[in-house]
Design goal:
single chain; 442 residues; Rossmann fold; Serine Threonine Protein Phosphatase 5, Tetratricopeptide repeat; DNA Cyclobutane Dipyrimidine Photolyase, subunit A, domain 3; 3 domains; five-stranded parallel sheet; 5 strands; 45% helix; 6% strand; binds flavin-adenine dinucleotide
C-alpha cells in the first residue's frame, strides 16, 4: 500500500482504500466493506494520529482524575489508544499532568496509572511467555468446570444481565471500556462463567483500540488471581456505586443477579475453601534493556505497533530516512484485530510523512527494503514486544537492527523485582513524579 498521507483529510476515501488494499494483500474481506462498519468507526471518539492525540492530551485534568477515576462517568483521560501505539509517550503525558497542578502529589493518581503501563511493559520484557501462561497457581480454586471458549451469548451481549450486556456491546462496538468496566466484565467471565482468562484476553485483544498484550493479558491474570494475591470479584453494591445504578434500575435480573450478596457470600459461592497459601513469593528480576549503544549514521526506520508517530525515537533520530511499517501476516492471523483498530493504525500512519506500508512477513520485507535502499542498519523504537525481538534475531546475520530509547519515565535502576506493582512503584515513584529533563525531552 502506498503512503496513506493523501487520504488524511478524506476519511471515506481512506476507508475504501484500506478495505480494498487489505483484501488485495491478505485475501481477507474487512468488515469495513460494509458502510455500517465505516460509519461506526467514523463516528468513533478515537481517531488515530498525533494531532488527535494532542487534542485529547490538552483536555486532561489530573485533580478531577484523582477524585473521579473509578466512576464510569469520571474524568479519565481516554488516552490509551494513542499511548498504546506510541502516538504519545508516557513522559509526555506525565509532563502535561505535572504542568496542570501546583504540587506533583496532585497528579500522583494519574501518574501512578501511567506507571502501571510502564510496569506491565517491563514485566513483558522480563517474562514474554507470561503473556499467555499463568504466572502463579490460581489464588483460589473455582467451584465447577472451567470452559475454554467464549459463549455466544457473551460475544453478542445477550446474557440477560443489563450491565454485562452493555459492556460486551461497548467492547465490540466502541473498542474502548472504562477500567472498571473491564474489571467487572473480566471478573464475571472468569469467576462466574468460569471461562479461562486466555479466552477473555484474546477476545479483548481483538476488539480494543488500545489492545496491548502486556497491559491486557497481565490485567486478565490480575483479575483471575494468577498474577495477584487474590482473585478480583465485585458485588452489586460496588457496581451500582460506580455506575450510579444505571444498569440495575431496569435490569430484569435485579434482586437475583450474579452479583447479589456480600463479598464473603460471593467468595463462598464461587471458590473452594481449600486454597492453600502460596508457598513461593513471585519474583521477576527485570532484564537489562535492549542494548542501543551503536547508533549508526544512517538507517532505515522501522515503525512498529508501539511507535506509530513522529515521536518515535527512531523517527526523531532519522527524520529524513525512509520509514517502513508492515502489517505482519502472523499478527493479523493471531490477533484478528478489528476493523476499527486497523483504521486507527492507518490514521496514525496517515499522519506521518512518507511511510511505506507493506503486508506480509516483517523480517523478509525489512530485509528486502534494506537491500533496495542499500542500508546497513534499521532503527526502531525500543519495545518489549517479543515479535519485534524475533524479527531482529532473524535479521541478525544480514542487517543490524538498532533500538532507540524513549525518554525515560522513571529511574528503575533500583528495581530488583517486578513480582508486584507495589514493589516496583515503591522504588520508582519519586522519579516518576518529576518532569522530564529538558535535554531528554522530544
Ligand atoms: C481486563 C483488563 C484489560 C485491559 N486491557 C488493556 C489494554 O489492552 N490496553 C491498555 O492500554 N490498557 C488495558 N487495561 C488497563 C486500563 O483499563 C486502560 O488502560 C484504561 O482503562 C484506559 O483508559 P484511559 O486512557 O482513560 O485510562 P486513564 O485511567 O486515564 O489512565 C491513563 C493511562 O494510563 C495507562 N493505564 C491506566 N490504567 C492502567 C492499567 N491498569 N494497566 C496499564 N495501563 C494503565 C493507560 O495507558 C491509560 O491511557 C486493561 C485493564 C483490564 C482490567
Amino acid at each position: 500500500m502506498k503512503s496513506l498521507q493523501p487520504y488524511r483529510n478524506d476519511s471515506e476515501a481512506m476507508h475504501s482504500h484500506i478495505a480494498r488494499e487489505f483484501h488485495l494483500a491478505t485475501g481477507h474481506e474487512l468488515p469495513a466493506s460494509t458502510p455500517v462498519e465505516i460509519e461506526k468507526f467514523s463516528g468513533s471518539q478515537f481517531r488515530g494520529g498525533r494531532v488527535k492525540a494532542i487534542e485529547q492530551l490538552q483536555k486532561i485534568d489530573p485533580v478531577r482524575y484523582g477524585r473521579t477515576r473509578n466512576f464510569v462517568s469520571g474524568d479519565v483521560t481516554k488516552l490509551s489508544p494513542w499511548l498504546r501505539h506510541g502516538a504519545l509517550s508516557l513522559t509526555e503525558v506525565r509532563d502535561a499532568a505535572l504542568s496542570k497542578v501546583q504540587q506533583a502529589s496532585q497528579a500522583e493518581k494519574l501518574i501512578a496509572e501511567l506507571g502501571w503501563r510502564d510496569y506491565w511493559q517491563r514485566v513483558r520484557a522480563a517474562r514474554p511467555e507470561g503473556v499467555w501462561y499463568d504466572f502463579e497457581t490460581p489464588a483460589a480454586r473455582h467451584r465447577g468446570q472451567v470452559i475454554d471458549y467464549l459463549p455466544d451469548t457473551v460475544a453478542h451481549g445477550e446474557t440477560g444481565l443489563d450491565c454485562i450486556d452493555a459492556f460486551c456491546k461497548k467492547l465490540t462496538h466502541d473498542g474502548w471500556l472504562h477500567n472498571h468496566e473491564r474489571m467487572w466484565l473480566a471478573s464475571w467471565l472468569v469467576h462466574t462463567r468460569k471461562v479461562t482468562w486466555r479466552v477473555g484476553a484474546a477476545w479483548f485483544l481483538q476488539h480494543l483500540l488500545d489492545a496491548d498484550p502486556a497491559s491486557n493479558n497481565f490485567s486478565w491474570q490480575w483479575v483471575a488471581g494468577t498474577f495477584s494475591s487474590k482473585p478480583y470479584i465485585f458485588n452489586r453494591e460496588n457496581l451500582e456505586r460506580f455506575t450510579a445504578g444505571i444498569y440495575c434500575e431496569t435490569c430484569p435480573a435485579l434482586g437475583h443477579c450474579d452479583f447479589e450478596g456480600t463479598y464473603e457470600q460471593l467468595n463462598e459461592k464461587l471458590f473452594m475453601n481449600d486454597s492453600d497459601e502460596r508457598e513461593m513469593r513471585l519474583t521477576i528480576p527485570p532484564v537489562v534493556s535492549w542494548d542501543s549503544s551503536d547508533v549508526p549514521d544512517e538507517s532505515l526506520v522501522w515503525m512498529t505497533l508501539d511507535s506509530l508517530s513522529v515521536c518515535s525515537p527512531a523517527k526523531l533520530r532519522f527524520p529524513e530516512s525512509p520509514a517502513i511499517f508492515v502489517f505482519d501476516q502472523h499478527w493479523l492471523s493471531d490477533e484478528l484485530p478489528s476493523y476499527k483498530r486497523i483504521a486507527f493504525i492507518c490514521e496514525c500512519l496517515a499522519d506521518l510523512p512518507d511511510v511505506e506500508i507493506w503486508f506480509g512477513d516483517t523480517a523478509s520485507i525489512l530485509q528486502e527494503r534494506a537491500r533496495a535502499n542499500k542500508a546497513d542498519a534499521i532503527s526502531v523504537a525500543n519495545t518489549s514486544c517479543p515479535a519485534v525481538r524475533r524479527v531482529v534475531d532473524r535479521l541478525s546475520s544480514t542487517t543490524s537492527v538498532v533500538p532507540l530509547e524513549w525518554p525515560s519515565f522513571c529511574d528503575a535502576s533500583k528495581v530488583k523485582d517486578l513480582g508486584r506493582f507495589s514493589r516496583y512503584w515503591n522504588k520508582v515513584s519519586k522519579t516518576a513524579l518529576r518532569p522530564t529533563f529538558a535535554d531528554d525531552r522530544f
